[in-house]
Every structure is written in C-alpha cells, then in structure tokens.
Specification:
By secondary structure, this protein is mostly helical. The protein has one domain. About 70% of the residues lie in helices and about 0% in strands. The longest helix is centred in the C-terminal third of the chain and has 35 residues. Keywords: Membrane, Transmembrane, Transmembrane helix.
Length: about 80
C-alpha cells in the first residue's frame, strides 16, 4: 500500500473568520475615530478613550482569531505522523 499524503486544507476555520472580521471592523472604526471628530454623530464618540477602546478590542479579537489558525496548522502538521 502506498503512503499518499492527505489533501491539505487551505481555508481558514470558521471560528477564525467569526473572530477576525469583527476584529478588523473594530480596528477600522478605531482608526477612523482617531482621525476625525464624530461628536455630532453620538455623544460616546466624543470621549477620548473610545478610539483606544476599539483598537484594544481589535487586538484582542485578532489575537483570539489566531488560535484556531495555529491549531489547524498544528493538526495538519501532526496528521501524517498519526497515519503511520
């Protein structure tokens, strides 16, 4: 019997998308709030810490989105060793 390599999965896990997309949205919103004055839109946007809070939330979400990607990578690397 020949040992053929298993097909590689190149797509990101759904959990990475579910954490990464809101992270990118928070990062974009935080950068936009840093660049302009949006106090006319909503009173919360007039606070100085709103942009920083969004950027910190974005970093947390993007960091959490990295875990499923790393776990998928480790599982793919370990799969051929488990077949032997």
């Amino acid at each position: 019997m020949t040992n053929t390599p298993a097909p590689r999965r190149s797509a990101l896990p759904i959990s990475a998308w579910l954490l990464g997309l809101p992270g990118l949205a928070c990062l974009l919103a935080g950068l936009v709030l840093l660049a302009g004055d949006f106090s006319d839109v909503h009173p919360v946007l007039a606070e100085s810490g709103t942009a920083i809070a969004l950027i910190v939330s974005a970093i947390a979400l993007l960091g959490s989105a990295a875990f499923p990607v790393v776990l998928r990578h480790l599982a793919d690397a370990d799969a051929p060793a488990a077949d032997q």
